[in-house]
Amino acid sequence: MHITQLNRECLLHLFSFLDKNSRKNLAETCHKLLEVFQDPLLWSLLNFHSPVELKKDNFFLGPALKYLSICWYSERVKVCNIEDWMKNSFQKDFCNRHENTVSDFLLDVCNRCPNLLSLTLSGCGHVTDDCILQVLKNCPNLKSLKLENCVRITDHTLEAVTLHGGSLRTLHVDFCRNITQAGLERVRQKCPSVMLRAERSANMIPDSKPEKKLEKASRKLVQV
């Protein structure tokens, strides 16, 4: 029996065991398999390990997407998670190449995947508070939001959770050093049902520009 003689349910089951690249390669062999590849039911879960993967055409975004993970573990993460004012010209040029890659992808998710239940972002140094706000607004069923080592995330994201995270049950903001204890306490007070975790976040010293540090030092000297 040839694979194309299988019914759609069997083909969907077969595709479910393949990774994104294998699914794409198989879909290019005939029109029937391409239709299976494009079936939204096949794409309820997506895992990405590099922003470069977000630009490929080996996946399909649709209302069936429930679980999305973008976890970038690379030496490049250390560069992208350095504050802009600390980067040299080479590092800035490197980061500019994919400045909006993840953010643009998440906005696309907001438009196409309203039933998203879980979002995990790790090492995404360019993701901003506004981007997370849009996800919370456009994906009202979101139950789990896990952010790790996302340097641009601040208390504005925590405030967005209290305003638009009505379905949220799990919130992780580990290694997000620019949030504060006050922001975390606000979430605990306003969203007591949310399981909040913030390992090495507000207890870390948040990054600030050199002039701000000098300003604080000057104030201390004046007080003395």
TrEMBL record:
GO terms for cellular component: cytoplasm
PANTHER family per record: MITOCHONDRIAL ATP SYNTHASE COUPLING FACTOR B (PTHR13382)
- Protein's organism: Lanius ludovicianus
Question: Which superkingdom does the taxonomy of this entry point to?
Answer: Eukaryota
Q: Does the keyword RNA-binding apply?
A: no
Q: Which InterPro entries match?
A: F-box-like_dom_sf, F-box_LRR-repeat, Leu-rich_rpt_Cys-con_subtyp, LRR_dom_sf
Q: Which SUPFAM superfamilies match?
A: F-box domain, RNI-like
Report the protein name in the record: FXL22 protein
Annotated region described as Disordered, given as residue ranges: 202-224
Keywords, A to Z, come to:
Ubl conjugation pathway
Q: Which portions of the chain have biased composition (kind: Basic and acidic residues)? A: 208-218
